[in-house]
Write a structure and sequence with these properties.
- The chain has six helices and five strands.
- With about 130 residues, the chain is of the alpha+beta class.
- It starts with a strand and ends with a helix.
- It is globular.
- It has a domain of about 80 residues.
- The strands form two sheets. A three-stranded antiparallel beta sheet has the order 3-4-5, with no helix packed on it.
- Keywords: Membrane, Transmembrane, Transmembrane helix.
- One of its GO terms (cellular component) is membrane.
Length: about 130
C-alpha cells in the first residue's frame, strides 16, 4: 500500500469493493512501520441506525436482547425526534425512519429462526457504539 520513491514513502488509497473495506496508508511511523486505517462500508440499513443519547441506546440494546426488534422500532422514532444518522443527508428523515421500521420488522419476523434475535442484539450493540463515540 505504501511505495518507496527515492527514500520517501507516499500514502496511497486502495479500495476493494469485494470486501467492502477501504484501506489507507498514512505514512511511516516512529518505529519504521506503516499505519493503516480501515473503514467499513455500510449498507443502507446499517447506515440508517440513529445516533441516540447513551442511556436511550442502552435501553434499546436491553429491549432488543429480550424482545427482538422492539429497541430497533423505538430507535426509528428517535429519528423523527432529531436523532442523527449517516443516511439522513442522502435520503431524508422519512426514508431513514422507514428503513429502521423495516429493520425492526425483519428482526421480529426472523426471530423465530434465531437470525432476527442475533441481528437484534448486534443492532443494539451498534446503537451503543454509535452513542459512545
Amino acid at each position: 500500500m505504501a511505495q518507496k520513491d527515492g527514500g520517501t514513502e507516499q500514502g496511497r488509497v486502495k479500495t476493494d469493493d469485494n470486501l467492502g473495506t477501504k484501506a489507507m496508508s498514512l505514512g511511516p511511523t516512529a518505529g519504521g512501520g506503516v499505519v493503516v486505517e480501515v473503514r467499513e462500508k455500510k449498507g443502507p440499513l446499517r447506515a440508517a441506525i440513529p445516533t441516540m443519547p447513551f442511556p436511550l441506546a442502552v435501553i434499546c440494546l436491553f429491549l432488543n436482547t429480550f424482545i427482538p426488534g422492539l429497541g430497533t422500532f423505538i430507535s426509528a422514532f428517535t429519528v423523527l425526534c432529531g436523532a442523527r444518522s449517516e443516511l439522513i443527508s442522502e435520503r431524508g428523515v422519512c426514508c431513514v425512519f422507514w428503513l429502521n421500521v423495516a429493520a425492526a420488522l425483519i428482526q421480529i419476523l426472523t426471530a423465530v429462526i434465531m437470525v432476527g434475535w442475533i441481528m437484534s442484539i448486534f443492532w443494539g450493540m451498534d446503537m451503543v457504539i454509535l452513542a459512545s463515540q
